Amino acid sequence: MKNLIVAISILGLSFNQLSAQDIHQNEVPSVILNHFQKSFPKASDIDWEIKGNLYEVEFETGFLGDDHKILYSRDGKMVFHEEEIAKNNLPKSVLATINKYYSGYRVDDVKRISDNGKIMYKAELKNYSTEWKVVFDAQGRILQKKED
Predict the structure, then answer these.
(1) Which residues contact 61 (CB under 8 A, 6 or more apart)?
(2) Taking Cα atoms as reference points, which of 130, 131, 135 lies closest to residue 94?
(3) CB 3.0 to 4.6 Å from 134: which of 56, 83, 145, 148, for a disulfide?
(4) How many CB atoms lie within 10 A of CB 6?
(5) Per-residue pLDDT reduced to its tens digit, 33-92
(6) Which among 70, 106, 110, 105 is positioned nearest to 90, based on CA atoms?
């Protein structure tokens, strides 16, 4: 039984390596790299990966090092962008929903997500005993919630 668990773990790690592979910036197609550098000229701590047919870049911007994750298609189109934002940058409609349904919860790890042009917001909502990861649309509707 122990050998089976070890074999399954090794196999799982192998598949994980196949699904995402770290690459050097000089391996990124120029159409993607040019678009990225034009859009984020002051990006720092840049890491590139290939995930299937997409190129993923994780990086930081700004004085406080706001985190970003972007997925580009092979033709250089940005298909997904997740960026860390401050709670006070959430739309009023999202804040109103949080205040209505999660009164007394602390708001952490707020992200703005653009997925093929659709804007969403993700936040961790915590109180003394419970933590939720909640995704909202721009109108403040809850799209997904998961207890963490």
Answers:
(1) 40, 42, 43, 44, 68
(2) 135
(3) 145
(4) 10
(5) 999 999 999 999 999 999 999 999 999 998 878 999 999 999 999 999 999 999 999 999
(6) 110
- The DSSP-derived string for 44-108 is EEEEEEEETTEEEEEEEETTTTEEEEEEE-TTS-EEEEEEE--GGGS-HHHHHHHHHHSTTPEEE
How many other β-carbons are positioned within 10 Å of the β-carbon of residue 143? 12
Report which of 56, 121, 47 is spatially closest to residue 83, judged by C-alpha positions: 121
Amino acid present at 10: I
Please state whether 30 falls in left (phi above 0), alpha (psi between -120 and 50) or beta.
alpha
pTM: 0.81
Q: Are 143 and 122 in contact (CB under 8 A)?
A: no
Cα–Cα distance, 146 to 148 (Å, whole number):
6
Fold of 21-147: Nuclear Transport Factor 2; Chain: A, (3.10.450)
